[in-house]
Amino acid sequence: NAGVTQTPKFQVLKTGQSMTLQCAQDMNHEYMSWYRQDPGMGLRLIHYSVGAGITDQGEVPNGYNVSRSTTEDFPLRLLSAAPSQTSVYFCASSYTPAGTGISDTQYFGPGTRLTVL
Amino acid sequence: DQQVKQNSPSLSVQEGRISILNCDYTNSMFDYFLWYKKYPAEGPTFLISISSIKDKNEDGRFTVFLNKSAKHLSLHIVPSQPGDSAVYFCAASGGLNNDMRFGAGTRLTVKP
Q1: DSSP-assigned letter for residue A62
Q2: pLDDT at B28 over 70
């Protein structure tokens, strides 16, 4: 049981480049989400999904796209990287969506450290 | 707008003493609160949670207290151990959106 895995661990991009951050979980969780962590800001929700085929925007969605074709995978795409997207990105999953008050514990991946020059 | 605030960026305590980490929130719709612990180069891991119908939840050395009228929660660690040194995030969820809001984190250092 690998839990939540993320690839790559580190990435350096130039402004304007695109890339996809991969996230996979093997716990059969319905809810998956992407956060970014910036100094002094905590973790901010980018996008989330309550099940395959369903995604929605979080607090800071601009510049990012997501899709959820399977229960296991939830990739995050940066369409045209900007220096403001330099951050540490965490993917998380849970049995039920946050906000239901039931089993809201989210399991986080180890993170991807992204630098945009 | 930061709906969850952790006003102390850092806290240092002696091994064996009590650590108290504080968190304030502004959204009265929040009804579920969690604490996560994060070590360097790792993702956050769940520590303890509390529902708004309770005012205290205890799990071993960790206790979370919720004061709904003051929109304040705190995490008590007794006794503190050097292995508790980490960044602690307070989080809250509830209301209309299926999202969770996190505080900025407090870095706890427990000195031997």
Answers
A1: T
A2: yes
Distance between CA A76 and CA A20 in Å, rounded?
6
Q: Is B43's CB within 8 Å of A50's CB?
A: no
Question: CA quadruple A24, A95, A50, B45: dihedral positive or negative?
Answer: negative
Q: What letter would DSSP give residue A73?
A: B
Candidates B101, B112, B103; CA nearest to B29 is: B101
* DSSP bridge pairs for B59: B62
- Nearest Cα residue in chain B from A107: B45
Band the pLDDT of A96: cuts 50, 70, 90: confident
- CA–CA dist B15, A47 (Å, integer): 40
Q: What's residue A59's pLDDT?
A: 87
Of A1-5, B8-12, B16-20, the one with minimum mean pLDDT is A1-5
For the segment A31-59, what is each residue's pLDDT rounded down to a tens digit? 899 999 998 888 999 999 988 999 999 88
B12 contacts chain A (CB < 8 A): no
Q: Is B71 helix (H, G, I), strand (E, B) or coil?
A: coil
Distance CA B20, CA B112 (A): 17
Closest CA to B23 of B14, B13, B36: B36
